[in-house]
Amino acid sequence: MVRLPIRWQESTRAVHHANHYYGHSHVLARWCGLDDADPPRIHGYLQHGWNIGDGMAPDHAFVPGAPLFVWSSRVQRRAWSLGRRQVVAIGSPWAYLLAMEPAEPDIPRDIPREGTIYYPFHGWEGQHVVGDHQGLIEEIRRVEEGPVTICLYWQEFRSRKLRQTYERAGFRVICHGYRGGWWKDLDPGFLVRQLAEQRRHQRVASNRLCSAVFYGTLAGCEPAVYGDPMRLEGERSAFGGEDFIQRNWPFMLGPRVDVARARQAAIDELGADRLLPPSALRLLFRWPAPVGVS
Amino acid sequence: MTPRLIGGEMTVWSDLDGKHGAGPVRAATLRPLLGAACGRTLVAGPHAVDLLSCLPSSPLTLLVRGLPDADYLADRFADHPSEVTVLCGSLAKLAAAPAFDTVIALDGLGRLRSAEDDAAGASWADDLARLVSVLAPGGRLLLGLENLFGLHRMLALPPSPTDADWGDAAGEYDASRPASPALLGAALAALGLGVRASYGAFPAPGNPSLLLSTSLLADRSVRGWATAAIRTAFAATAPALADPGRIAAGALRAGIGAELACGWVVLAQGPSDSPAPQPPAAVVGEAAIDSDLPSGPTLDELLLAASLRRDMPALRELLAGWQGGDNAGVPADRIVVAPDGTRTPLAPAVQPETALAQLAATMIREGHAYLWPAPADQAELTALLAAMAGREAAEIPPVVLDPAPGLRETLMERDRLTRELAEARAKQGWYEKMLQAREAELKRVRRINTMLMATMPGKAAKASYGGLRAAKRALRKLKG
Fold it and tell me: What predicted TM-score, i.e. pTM, was given to this entire model?
């Protein structure tokens, strides 16, 4: 067995714990030919969700000189304009996953996609959404013709009352899993489960344009964004907020959208057209070569 | 008034505040050109409000990419809501309708697209075509363009990237981006626009203090005047790799002054029955200049040529004529000497010795120190030049000039000082050696003297010498 340099033996500790959210680093380790159960440290910050800022979460504490690995060239430019340096657009883990999972092995090909997977806007840990779920249910019923799956964030999924609200409406309620935090309870299979679910559905929808809608679009679903966008308690509109999204991605909004155009936007925003080969990604992350590769 | 968001706007970005790169175009030097504007006018890119307020025409549309800038402009022009429209967003989102009689983009095309705009495939020519597409037939375009091979870049270290350099343009590697006034004219001609006036801008592309028309830059008869004007423009700039004034003078001699300008400003227009008024031949500071310019070289060129030829009589005559005349305090590189000998000063006079010291510094910095006996530092050479001009060198007070303007001059000075230090040390070594020899000689003579004093004749001589001195003292007392 090849003995790794000491710095690789630290393993499983990213520069920032957010690098491991949703099993992102696990997907990228798999792409790089490394052990995806125990991804090495990424020497930098990995964008973990679609956003209209510099790609990073506002609570990230940055170490000077550590690179930022963002999904798209647009975020790369924006991050630079906001004073960030060493910003590299590498594409999103989701796009890498799709590149590795082009087939749909868990769904027989003769069963067509069906219905809609809907992601109600969610807060993150410690945040609470203010909104009318009953009103949203009625709107979903008005728009959707097929069966509806509601995918809740783990925080909302824990609320039996909320789950039952959607279940009583006849919707299937699921949760893709826990995203992990502070290197604990990591969920390497998060994105894999999300992909399997999305590939069962004809449509992907949410009440706000978000990562899940772009993910679904790239995974072959027709996207839609409609319904009460709800609000976070004490929400502040950084970088222009929802108004900015409405002006810049109007073609993604509404119950029926131009699928071809939406798909191009998903490719752009998820950086699906700029995936790096494993050797280049390993160099950027300062990851070791797989065993057997010199 | 509320800005109209056209898409691609940057919500937390400002070009006008100057904190993320160059500030807006604001030079008063550009004002005389704004007279070309007429009818519905679009001003695209960051331009200072002071400049905008000089525009004669209305209605006015302003396009900026940063939302804070758009809000600021909307606030500043709130009193003219019917005449001023503020658009915020990327050039890519500007409706391609021929809605304007004049388009002004003195900042160039580099800050018209936003970070929200996927411009990876867009070339400079694409952007120009998009901007020209909003121009009505016969409309006027006032366009600025930085020369990426201009003196300001050629003679500077690579600048640190700013927040504005997020990489939406290939810069000098964009083959469609004009690299000379001729190529700029061709790019405009390809879009049906003819160049009515074209300027080289100095010493900074966006905020020049000097505009010289390209025809003036090519006119050898006024080369001295143009050289002096460019030297003045560069005088206040930061130190560079080499004195830009010297390189500019060489470029004008080579007939490539326009090609090496820091930027270009053109007034272009499509075929029209109402051609734009001809703008001035040059703008210095805020003054438009059209009148006859003095022809001939500058005095310092004549002085340097005479020095290089070792033509001392000619050099003395030039120096005496200068220092004995009315322009003794005007620096030699700011005096144009016409073929008939008429001297035209182009700068206010300083102390004559300062002007002489500046000439001495120029001679040293141009690499001509070897023409004079060492140590040819500025003070020595100033005194020598003053003496040759017929003044007493002792009258010349020491003059302290600014340090050398560029790395090249600094290196030359270092080499000269190194050589002078080595020479001074060699001379010191020679003095030491000589001193030791003389001291040894002195010791030997003293020793002989002591020995001689111990002999009988020596004692007798000492006694008689002592008696003689006592007699002289007694005599002095008697007289007193």
Answer: 0.85
